[in-house]
Amino acid sequence: MLFSPSTSLVLLAGSFASLAAAQNDGDFSPPSYPSPWMRGGNGWQDAYAKAQEFVGGLTLLEKINLTTGVGWEGEACVGNTGSIPRLNFAGICLQDSPLGIRFADLNSAFPSGMNAAATWTTRLFKSRGNAMGMEHRGKGIDVQLGPVAGPLGRVPAGGRNWEGFSPDPVLTGVAMAETIKGIQDAGVVACAKHYIMNEQEHNREPNGTVKFAYSANLDDKTMHELYLWPFADSVRAGVGSIMCSYNQINNSYGSQNSYTLNYLLKNELDFQGFVVSDWWAQHTGVASALAGLDMTMAGDQNLASGNTWWGSNLTAAVLNGTMPQWRLDDMATRIMSAYFKVGRDTARVPTNFNSWSSETFGYIHPQANEGYQQINYHVNVQADHARLCREIAGASTVLLKNVNNALPLKKPKSIAVIGEDAHDNPGGPNSCGDRGCNRGTLAMGWGSGTANFPYLIAPNTALKEQAARDGTKYSNVSDNYDFSAVTAALQGTDAAIVFANADSGEAYISVDGNTGDRNNLTLWGNGDALIAHVASQHPNTIVVLHTVGAVIVEEFKNHPNITALLWAGLPGQESGNAITDILYGKRNPSAKNVFTWGKKREDWGVDVVYTPTADPPQLNFKEGNFIDYRYFDANGIEPSYEFGFGLSYTTFEYSDLKIQKMSPGPYEPTKGMTKAAPTFGTIDFNESNAEFPPGFHAVNKYIYPYLSDDVPRDQVQNWPEGSLEGTPQPKLPAGGSAGGNRQLYDVMYVVTATVKNTGGVKGVEIPQLYLSLGAPTDPRIVLRGFDDLILDPNESATFEVKLTRRDLSNWDTASQNWVVSNYPKTVYVGASSRDLPLSGTLA
Ligand code: NOJ
């Protein structure tokens, strides 16, 4: 049974607790109405005041224009809202991606989100966000479509995991918050996506196989403790927009799910910005607006279909009273508040690039081939971001194995560099659109989460330069199948460095039969055989992996001839320079795993559902909170390499755990009622004023707010109960402030420990704090804090984590609130999720 807002049973708000408890098998997503209106709290006051004034001065059609995209390829950006010509206000430009500007030139191609996470360094999360934000700003982009917390990374083969950060919600939450602050400090609105449960690519949208997108089915506790967590952090960081996902959640579409949008996001998390649909993820008109959607993208119902769910239809819905004015005003005010909050009113420059053509001259309305003029101004926005790209790429390279002092290399007499993955793509780094092929070295996955490379330094290029500087004899082979050439190149060398990769991306492109999600967890292009061949020939084989996530390394990791193993992820444009820094010890490795490396595919306990057995396909998240390391721990599965693990060229020692109890006072559930829904300005209900102006030239397939037919009146309306109500509404006990009840962020304990560099070289250690919440139903441990400590030999520093009330709590379905259970709580501190020398009990 499919539930949409218009067909759902209507239940009273008071019965949520029992509903939420029941919604664990996917057949029900409880309705929640009305859609909460903005209140302008938590740092949004000024922006809200400006937005109110702005929206109050708009006509109905102008308000509608802010909410609706102009259609695919209607304007320069991947998404563009309508404009307000009367005020000289250009439509809002939304542009991919989470790792740099998609479809542009003279921009940077940053390391992936997953790589950023692997640095475990908040400073770098924020600098990366800020540098990306500055580039978007320079090109005249209003909204950067990133960062990503969905997928979180439930299944290792999930195609878009690398766009996000880590399957751990705390690491992802910190990375989301810092990235958002960085982007928004640059004067650009960040967009946290894809909300929510967008955990695989197969059947994420209706397609030739299924009529309906898959439904991710999960319970209320898992929702709060795992998947919603990083979105709560995003809201707390002040994110301006959130993109709702293609998939369904408990059998209600992400972009019209009143429970996830109205109840969780806008009420409980007190989100003040706007919700934008993923491109064509909207499936209804008024119903989606009442369920909490504020902006539709790309605006047309389907790619270049020329029709729309909103635009003229929303105009008609307001005129005939189906859509209350307060809801439209709230949509427009949320959009403009985000705009003012990040300072777009002063930061904005005209959009000076065009997604659909790299030529200097072309069409401003590419879909219609209309308006020939200059469309690309080739503005160079790279600044000195190459340095940051190189730093993050190096700081995200995990040293997994290093024996016999294989690394760092010290002016070796001769080396051989083996593997296609070390070499340039012969067609150039951008030769496949949206990186939809796997040729040459892999530095980003494929899909909309990409950017054009300004250049891509392949490992072969940088290593060869290093060899030239050192007087090292250098040989290289790029053909993964030519084993005799490989054998010949290895002769007489001190070290063999072999590169291999595994790629994935977004579902609209299939690469080598992988429709977004990976078909397996093995290396691509004969990589496993290549590594085995080199290792069989060379006693000093160093393996470097560029992969989108875990691959099965168990076969070769224990090979005695493999002396070193490194994971470099998707390092972006500075790939070769960064890996050279690491291999030669110019940078001491400090990165740690952001996911678990299982020994075999089954070890994760969950997988992509490739072949649906129902329509909509039912993806039952029965494992609950137990994904990645939590699943391995709970089931006694030994991984190849654990979450949080990574070596350095030096060593560290942990000591002196101290726990200090704070007294923030008891937790009070939020009470009271909201104000009534405000409206801004008056609506002109004269239909003839909403028609196309006389003589108006309509661009082909462009979406307009003007009425196209007579407004239907007096039809039977059957909207969910309460959905049109603008009266004061009850606040939720766990809500009331950005990211939930503000007392959730009270500090309950301060935990400190001493970390000492006990080796011979300077290094960075990433100490980690894990917590056992204590109940038999809880994971063995969960990550709660981390830091990056830069230490000279013999130097010590203090690692400190502030544990908040949320950190110590479980979600209680019955009271719809966070509760600290009576089970004993233990903290663990150490170098990885399985190397935790210090522990203590919380009193
Ligand atoms: C679909 C993708 O899921 C989303 O991440 C992206 O921002 C939009 N397309 C626009 O390209």
Automatic annotation (TrEMBL):
Reactions mediated catalytically: Hydrolysis of terminal, non-reducing beta-D-glucosyl residues with release of beta-D-glucose
EC number in record: 3.2.1.21
Region (Disordered): 715-737
InterPro entries: Cellulose_deg_GH3 (IPR050288), Fn3-like (IPR026891), GH (IPR017853), Glyco_hydro_3_AS (IPR019800), Glyco_hydro_3_C (IPR002772), Glyco_hydro_3_C_sf (IPR036881), Glyco_hydro_3_N (IPR001764), Glyco_hydro_3_N_sf (IPR036962)
One Gene Ontology term of the molecular function aspect: beta-glucosidase activity
Pfam families: Fn3-like (PF14310), Glyco_hydro_3 (PF00933), Glyco_hydro_3_C (PF01915)
Stretch forming the signal peptide: 1-22
Transmembrane helix is among the record's keywords: no
Known pathway: Glycan metabolism; cellulose degradation
GO biological process, one term: cellulose catabolic process
Protein name: beta-glucosidase
Organism, as annotated: Cadophora malorum
